[in-house]
Amino acid sequence: MLQIQPLFDEREEWDALAARESLRYEVLELSVPPALDRSGLAASCHEWYRAGKRVSSLHGAFINVNPACGDTAFRALSQRRCRESCAVAVMLGAKNVVFHSSAAPYLRGAHLDAWADTCAEFYQVLARQHQLNIFIENSIDVDPQPLATLMQHAKDPHIGVCLAVGHAHYSRVPLAQWFDALGERIGYLHLSDNHGLYDEHLPLGSGTVDWAEADALYRQLGKDLPVTLKVGGIDGVKRSLRYLHERGLFVQSEA
Questions:
Q1: 25-39, 56-70, 107-121, 147-161: which has the minimum mean pLDDT?
Q2: What is the pTM of this model?
Q3: Which one, 11, 24, 138, 140, has the greatest CB density within 10 A?
Q4: Which residues pair with 96 in a beta bridge?
Q5: Domain ranges of the chain
Q6: What is 187-242 written as a DSSP string?
Q7: Can you give the pLDDT at residue 42?
Q8: CATH class as words, domain 2-247
């Protein structure tokens, strides 16, 4: 299932593209506070997304969010933001919510286990309460260990990994190692390109990600997954779709 992240202010163009390419929506803008500062925008966004019936996923709150923060006041606020995201997802008809990993990059040992245990318990409660699939995305992670540890603590099959290929590309380990370490717990993909230094959200083929390798690793999983293009806007999406179509990459079976 190929997904895009539309913008309410350009909704007619996004809807036309989605209809033409049979795309679904992963809603991002409702989790970014500045986008909601204008009066009435949130309600209008909700109405448009619900009416269109294209929403399959929601990208949850992620700015400074750490549901396992050692400061209990910040932890409470983070967990509230996550609960709010899940409530919005249900309202829009989404089945999946993506949250960023909040582990410090070099967290290891007992500290990593404590973080993973707290996150696992919280995410499992969210998944049960809201009847959602929750996927945790590598973001500032330098290697797969924090997410692998989290998955060991989170036994619920409704908790999985959103592997961001672009984020893995600027980590300190090869992409194949991410697939090997996280294996069958990978249930979702984010695609974007960059030059291996930082998160650029470039159209596919505009950076140095080896997309033939990424496609081969994806196929080895043996299952169709939600795959979201995070490529900086509608022009980037169009360029990325052409890139995928011309090369036969990330071909999805009909849902």
A1: 25-39
A2: 0.95
A3: 138
A4: 57, 133
A5: 2-247
A6: EEEEE-B--SSS---BPTTSSS--HHHHHHHHHHT-S---EEE-SSSHHHHHHHHH
A7: 75
A8: alpha beta
